[in-house]
Amino acid sequence: MLHPRPLASIPTTPALAGLEVGLSESALGIALATVGAVGFAGQFLCVRLGTEDGDVIDAVLVVLLCNVALLVPPLLVLYPPPYVDLYTPVSALSFAAAGVAGMFVARVAMFRSIKAIGANLTSPIVASNVFFATVFAVVFLGERLTGVHLTGIVLIVAGLAVVSWDTAASTGPDRSLREVGATLLLPLVAAVSIGIEPIFVSIGLADGTAVLPGIVVMAGTATVGFVGYLGVGESVRRVRRSGPEVRWYVGAGVATTVGFLAYFAALEVAPVVIVMPFLQLTPLLVVVLSVLLLPSHLERVSLRVVAAAVLVVIGATFVSISG
Fold first, then answer.
1. From CA 211, how far away is CA 180, in angstroms rounded?
2. 187 vs 23, 113, 182, 250, CA distance in Å?
3. pLDDT for 89-131, tens place per residue?
4. What is the rounded distance in angstroms from the CA atom of residue 256 to the CA atom of residue 260?
5. Residues in contact with 240: Cβ distance below 8 Å, sequence separation at least 6, in sequence order
6. Gyration radius of the chain's alpha carbons
7. CA nearest neighbour of 99 among 240, 11, 226
8. Could you report the per-residue pLDDT of 124-165, keeping only the tens digit for each?
9. What residues contact residue 227 under an 8 Å CB cut-off, 6+ apart?
10. For labeling, which of 33, 123, 170, 312 is most exposed (least CB within 10 Å)?
């Protein structure tokens, strides 16, 4: 009786071996990027559910504390002390600035927007952060625009126009253009803040600090800054430490931490052109998950919302893979 040869004993040419490694790394990158997109989408839904009866201040604080609690232990395990040697003055300041912009300002604006207009309308606008990141990269890093960049930017702007149209239609014909613009200001502030975050992160990474230590500084700085903000406003006393909505905030904190770690891990094993298209699926995932999981009174999913999400996803993917 003939027995098949074990796979380990079958000779493999160097080219075939390289192809197998490439395929496995690409598949792992796609899987991690998809996990990242699901994590970021989960953040939107958890915040929407938690802030129905809860407060945005509570949501931001709990999410930040979850980020710190989940990120610090891996840092302590993977890196030997003294941990101060992981940073330079430039990298520490850069990641701190990224934390203030992307984890403090952006989250306050984004969570308030989710509470005000919902996750479905907020997520496509926030996803336009790649447009602002491109503008900042051209201005501050001297990068050049390509035809693919411009195509993506046009699609993003078209998606934002559709969101504006749907917001105006859903909030009533009696509202002025200025009132609709004020409604959309919060997610735009979040998009701008997230857009400038990579500029600071790039500076920190270029100065020799690894991704995980950098994210820890980002989360820690954002948390300290937010607690200081609460202290100045004397609102730290009213932060709720229990209640059913706190579970949703913790869920949002876990989801966004998983999203960050999966996103950066994907970039470590696969090219940007493979990772970013899957990561940009977040707005579409928010729409789908809202239909499946959220009560109808919380989220209204229209064809215009779906169209806006599609336009922004395609445009953001074009901008990302061309950069």
1. 38
2. 37, 6, 10, 22
3. 999 999 999 999 999 999 999 999 888 888 888 888 888 887 7
4. 6
5. 54, 55, 58, 246
6. 21
7. 226
8. 888 888 778 777 877 877 777 778 778 888 888 788 777 766
9. 61, 236
10. 170
